[in-house]
Fold this sequence. Notes:
The structure holds two protein chains of two kinds. By secondary structure, chain A is of the alpha/beta class. Helix content of chain A is 43%, strand content 18%.
Amino acid sequence: MDERIRVLVAKPGLDGHDRGAKVIARALRDAGMEVIYTGLRQTPDMIVNAALQEDAQVIGLSILSGAHNAIVPRVMELLREKGMSDVLVIVGGIIPDEDAAELKRQGVAAVFQPGASLEEIVQFIRSSVPEAA
Amino acid sequence: MYQGRLWTMRQFAGFGTPEETNQRYRYLLEQGQTGLSVAFDLPTLMGYDADHPNSAGEAGKCGVAISSLEDMETLFRGIPLGEVTVSMTVNSPAAVVWAMYLAVAQQQGVDWAGISGTIQNDILKEYIAQKEYIYPPRPSMRLVTDTIEFAAQRVPRFNPISISGYHIREAGSTAVQELAFTLRDGIEYAEWAIERGLAVDSFAGRLSFFFNAHNDFFEEIAKYRAARRMWAHIMRERFGAREERSMKLRFHAQTAGCSLTWQQPYNNVARTALEALAAVLGGAQSLHTNSMDEAYALPSEHAVTLALRTQQVIAYETGVTATPDPLGGSYFLERLTTEVENAAQDYIRRIDEMGGMIPAIERGFPQREIAEASYEFQRSLETGERKVVGVNAFQEEAGQPIELLEMDESAGRRQEEKLGALRKRRSGARVAATLDGLRRAAEGKENTMPAILDAVRAYATLGEICQALADVFGVYQEKSIL
């Protein structure tokens, strides 16, 4: 079985600025992970279903529009409903400190703000996901 | 050139409800700003009303929420549209938003022949870079052509399109790619308008451009100079334009949003000033300077005033406005201009060989080129080959505190309430009839603008009008390209 870490990179909401999502997706792939990029305008339902189907261990959400407080909690709720709480959720984008703290309280593993390095994100995923059996 | 007239100082603004944005506009005009520029929220840009489920959490966030003619009336209350020029950054639903604007002008008693401004209306760069599209490329191009034709015939001082490299660059392209893809998009619009039966000199003078002002100082100036030279050749040789006006490339510039840093945000004032200076030395007709806090949020009033003052310092204190093309003749800059031109020319040739910009987009060519460049850029930051002050060099442990715009989270709810009341008050029969008329116009070959105007005046909402067009045109889904 493929032992690579499986990451779903998703871009929820109406915003189409996908530069960050694409750069991260390529960086994770270059770091040896299996990356599935969902493309644009994914609803929380679509994202969680895709993660289920793709057996993703990590969901990376890219949000720049300020809609994170409406979108991320819904994703977390759906993951709990489907018994997928073991999936690591990380968020990247323009997320103010106080919102980042709140998202973490809701179960988000990490929030990467502007200026975070690719290496930092790769290391975080590697150290947080148990090696696939 | 600035001796006769300075560039237009046009700060892009919009947030929350039309009432709040109207107040910001009046403030900016009082501070000496000379034109308005409307930022719409994401639901508006995607053709959704504020009360659509997909608008949840987004209404009024990244710009002002406009769902109907009523909102547009509020947005420009007390602002004389015959005197102020207004730029509206909207693409897929541009024809609808423009129709709302024209209807408000009419209500104010202003003749369409006398109003001036710009709608961005550049759908090709949406498929290439910013991704705010609704319909597939060909029906979208038909809508754009409808507006170009309508402007040429009825609103002759209005720029029906602003062919934009800005977003291509923000998506991570190089300067050469920005220039090449933008001019090739311009060629595509001109071809469609000529195909429609318009004489090139009847519309070409109203094609306007929008470029990024990024931080590689000389390369940016070279880019603007190359753009003017290339467009003049394209117009004269490729399209047989005869009037000088058609060959002139007029452009708006905005400093690079992606150059702003979250770390040490006050440094952004210096970055923006230098980028703005490049745009001025490159001969921009209109300029937006970013605010120092925009890596965090929409700008505060304090930050946007400082950004405007930055332009005023350049305009009134530095003396750089005294000479047109002041760097012309410099060995370095002339050579750089030619290099940028040749490299851009090469891209244009390749896209021509693919059969034009639409086939190139369909095969993901510009998208892939940009993704490649943005990844390279990020790698160069990671390795430290490229330095960004405060981010990977000269870092500070403690953050710099900065005061941000407090957003009123209730904007979405208030918009929903107003829209609910409007839906009850208006004539449902008239809305239905005008939307049917629009569907018929869209199915045929006629210009859709008159039917869109009818629907707007009946207070059909933006979402309803965009949906009526989607009933006929379908919607576009891009293949995700990594």
